[in-house]
Amino acid sequence: MAIKILSVDDSRTIRLIVGKAFKPYDCTMLEAGNGEEGLVVAAREKPDLIILDVTMPVMDGVTMLTKLKEDAVLKVIPVIMLTAESGRDNVLQIARLGVRDYLVKPFKEDQLVEKAGRCVTLVKRAAAPTAPAA
Amino acid sequence: MQPQPDINQYKELARRYGLGPTPESVSRLTALVARQDADVDEIVRVIEKDPGLSARLLRVANPHAANEDEYTVGTVEAALLRNGIGCALLLAMGTPLSLALTKTFQTMLSLKLESVDPNELAGLVGEHMLGSIGFIGKIAGHVYLRMSLASARTVAAGILGIKPEEIGGRDEISDVIGELSNIMTGNFKSNLCDAGLDCKLQPPKVGLSGDYSTPIEPGGGIERLAFRAGDIHIFVEVTANPWNE
Q1: Residue A98 forms part of a structural domain
Q2: I need a labelling partner for A125 at 20 to 30 A (CA). Which of A90, B58, B82, B167 fits?
Q3: Nearest chain B Cα distance for residue A44, angstroms
Q4: In this structure, what are the phi and psi dihedrals at residue B141, rounded to the nearest 5 degrees?
């Protein structure tokens, strides 16, 4: 069964890049533009992994992470923070809340896939069958 | 003095997560400025240990000199007294900002971005893409990122991994430039916070602009940076008042 990955970021650019990174793998990509939407999608879809930004409108990533960890069902979902913020206090606060990993933007798609691969089992998609020669 | 447990814990986390360190001179200078009662001699010593920062401070203190032989302000101390501590901080902060931008281009576009003297680069003409992000707290200011629409299209396509003609429209370009501004300023803000100048970022604003004026915060200063990668010319301005609160 395909792994479900939820990307929560207010930037469509980042959500596109994250989606592209996992395209070679058997994954179903889910998206949310802020923490509030992220919680709704997480509760509905129970993703296998959440990739979460920090600075977002409506609800930031730290608040979403706090609420995830307060939820008996959702707290087990591994979270990778993907953010431009690497300040000491931010990292300490987020680590204490319980994240599996932390990736600072700018990032390479390979780095994200490698970190994700430590949280879930990523399986390469089978190559599409080629059309027989006429 | 023993390091605080938080520092040790952070170092361990930074190692585990692969987070890069802030340049030493930037951390020390920002921390000194944040204290507000720092001795000028102490600040001079920190700046003098960074040859690049010393050279930039002297260049700013001698705006009409064509080369070092024409400098009338010849020491870091004199340059600091002439330009102020806030100017030195802005110059120092230019380093991590430049690093964040060049690293973003290298990582996400495989493009080598070269830092150049803003006066050496052909300026933008007419309307251009402008991304700006404000930061507010103990230090307050803005970071402005400017480039031509053609450059912005090329950059957006590169980051998204598509051809420039495949870009959907202006909104797609704006989103990429907003994220570029966000990445650059997020790294910059982290350095400020680590050094004691706590601040929060405001959401990025992106759009076409024909306005080249840069408002400066009361009591603040401005640092101008420029970058080139082939035909792509990028201009960055940082305005800040390090004594906002």
Answers
A1: yes
A2: B167
A3: 28
A4: 175, -165
Per DSSP, the three-state class of B85 is: helix
d(CA B140, CA B51): 27
| Closest of A8, A3, A4 to residue A82, by C-alpha | A8
CA distance B144 to B209: 12
Tens digits of residue pLDDT in B152-188 = 999 999 999 889 889 988 899 999 999 999 988 888 8
Report CB contact under 8 Å: A86, B107: no
CA pair distance B101, B99, nearest whole angstrom: 6
Tell whether A92 is covered by a domain: yes
Q: Does any domain span residue A7? A: yes
Please indicate whether, in this complex, the C-beta atoms of B13 and A101 are within 8 angstroms of each other: no
pLDDT along chain A (134 residues), means of 10: 94 94 96 98 98 93 96 96 88 91 92 96 82 63
Cβ of residue B183 closer than 8 Å to a chain A Cβ: yes
CATH of the domain at A100: 3.40.50.2300
Return the beta strands (E) in B138-202 as ranges: 140-147, 199-201
Grouping H, G, I as helix, E, B as strand and the rest as coil, residue A103 is strand
3-state secondary structure of B64: coil
Domain total of chain A: 1
Has residue A9 been placed in a domain? yes
pLDDT digits (tens, 9 = 90+) for B87-133: 777 777 777 788 888 888 898 888 899 988 888 888 888 899 999 99
Instruction: Tell me which residue range forms the domain holding A70.
Output: 3-109
**Sign (positive or negative) of CA dihedral B151, B154, B157, B160:** negative
